[in-house]
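hey can u run this one w/ iron/sulfur cluster bound, need the structure tokens asap thx
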Amino acid sequence: MRDLVSLLNSEFDVLNVSERLMRLRESVQGRIVFTTSFGLEDQYLSHLIFSQDIAIDVVTLDTGRLFAETYALWQATEEKYRRRIKAYHPDANVLQEMIAEQGVNGFYHSLEARKTCCGVRKVEPLKRALAGAGAWVTGLRGDQSEARGSIDFASFDTGFGLVKANPLADVSRAQVDAAARVAGVPLNPLHARGFPSIGCAPCTRAIKPGEDERAGRWWWEKDEKKECGLHVAADGSIKPRFVHSDGDRPWAV
Ligand code: SF4
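ok here u go:
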């Protein structure tokens, strides 16, 4: 598995995003899962997977607290590509207990309550989504926030026991945006209203000019804590690799 990670890291370096997805498919045995939250990067990856018929399962984690615009985009995406995006929901009994204990918006009260909510609504469903998979594809980019700093193209996720692939790791938001618009990819209208990063409605606000892309997520917390638990390594770190500037990579769509 470690050899595969090294191979993917060296090969992805000279491939475009479509080729990276296809190379991953050729290299990994068994099921590959792409988890979309319908943001710009995820929509572009869904477009590449669906339009090229790459055998990667596109799934989503429906927390039950998403924006109405996100649900509308989910439907529009399924209709455009004529594919169903499988949803994983929180366990109903555990969710019921959590709300009874912390209240319907208990995540505002403490970091612990917020992490509990993300654990119930996102992390546990993600575990079910990835069960038995050989690889997990994400839409992470290295320049999304200081915490994400930079990330590898591929790594071994010890928590889930699979290869985690980030085919957009070295790509800028502007590059993804341009490619998505040329391709006619359906996008969330909230992006144009100051929401570069879109999560659950009660935990996402629009950002101000000059703010970090992810400043609108859990805006009441400090940046180093602003991850939901889906993309943090077992030791709590996110390893640096890329520091992106537009045009400095052999990236092409
Ligand atoms: S982002 Fe907010 S509402 Fe969504 S799972 Fe995390 S704490 Fe809960």
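Confidence is low (pLDDT under 50) at residues 234-253. anyway lmk if its weird
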